[in-house]
Amino acid sequence: MSAQAASPARLPSSDVSPWVGAVGLCTLLAYIAICRLWPEVVNTFGLPGPAERLSGPYSALLAMILTGFSMAVYSLLVEKVHRNPSTGIDWNLRRATSEIMEISVTKLAGLWATWIIIGGLYCLGRWYWEGQYLFAMQVIAVAAVPIFLLSIPYIFWLDRRMVSPRDHAWHFGAMLIGREAWDMDEVKKHWRAWIIKGFFGAFMISILPGGFAAVVEVNYTEIIDNPVNLGVALFELLFVVDVQIGTVGYLLTLRPLDAHIRSGNPFIAGWLAALLCYPPFVFGFMGNGGVIQYEYNTAGWDYWFEGHDVLLWGWAAMLVVLTAIYAWATVAFGIRFSNLTYRGVLTNGPYRFSRHPAYLSKNLFWWCTTLPFLVTSDSLVDAIRNTFFLGMVSAIYYWRARTEEAHLLGEDPKYREYHAWMQEHGLITSRMARFFKRANPRPVP
């Protein structure tokens, strides 16, 4: 079925349950509450240690670990995702270790070589050794040895049960060892998946501490009457939700959780559009002094609406709603969130209303917070430039959306059904279709 085929009668079922993300969200919020109340806990129970809020970087890391653990346990015990056919695992299989020894050793060679190469790339990238990335490098360095050691029993245990144990990692290992036939297309799939995990995983870990500390330390009683400060605090909380659950998605790419990366985006355009939005590339492109920086002589919504309390409260509420939609779009993925990947088809949550709710809400948030057409310099040129360049940023996200759709349309018939259904029933696409139909009521010959 093509994307232009007739819309299915019903919205296709989602491969991801909404309850997984809900469990993670509840766990995260509960842990944040404990961190905020930790001084009271210490004093009440006479615990050792300082009576201070737990806002440090390792507390942020623990929040992510607990959130991921709760979602993984729920997925296994309640939803039993390990029994999904899409895992590629047959739990009735019990191959002898001797039968899969060569396969597993080859796969381990491919995995270990991959991790060593990624580690070397981390060493070469100067940006990984300064600023927020230092925390990510510390975490990865500590985790490296346990991951190498645990990969041995994990791979042998998994290969005894996999329907086809010669997966992407095996093909890369076979290429290195050179003893068996291997497929270059499989090797490319292996590297697309691991570049995604290596690049975005380090970035996500690096941004865990900042927002988490702000959320744990904020005093809501002091800002409850200020729409700007309260709005910013709620933005921070919702962005922390996005970052924490998003980081889990990059790290828990395990087959028994049915969260493995089935394929990475094969289109260069998709990679280019995505990488432009993240460090280090974003700094030279959209950042301060970047080619399309859109915040020259801007002051933001709070400056322009100062003194108009009703407008400030209304605008703050709207921005919180946009940020909540953005966070919801990540929570809906549960443990399967990551850029540039196909890990199943998601049709519930905000994806019930839009194919790209995160991109849509994020861009609307930027437009409504920056107000690029209003400048403190009173310069029409600044206003035009800012508006034009923020428009270019939105165009990049539209480009990302189209390349992601092209990837998924080629991977899964269910996504093609979802795409066709959304064309007719989506909150945005259906209205656009009706608009163009009214504008051109006669069929085009």
Short précis:
By secondary structure, the chain is mainly alpha-helical. Helix content is 64%, strand content 1%. It has a domain at 252-445.
How would you summarize the topology of this molecule?
Layout: H1 18-36, H2 38-45, H3 57-77, H4 97-124, H5 133-159, H6 168-177, H7 184-206, H8 208-217, H9 220-223, H10 227-251, E1 263-264, H11 268-275, H12 281-285, H13 301-304, H14 309-331, E2 341-342, H15 357-370, H16 380-409, H17 413-425, H18 429-439
Helix pairs in contact: 1-3, 1-8, 3-8, 3-10, 4-5, 4-6, 5-7, 6-7, 7-10, 8-10, 10-14, 11-16, 14-15, 15-16, 17-18
Structural features, described:
The chain is mostly helical. The chain has a domain at 252-445. The protein is built from 18 helices and 2 strands. α1 packs antiparallel against α3 (57-77) and α8 crosses α10 (227-251). The model has no long low-confidence stretch (mean pLDDT 94).
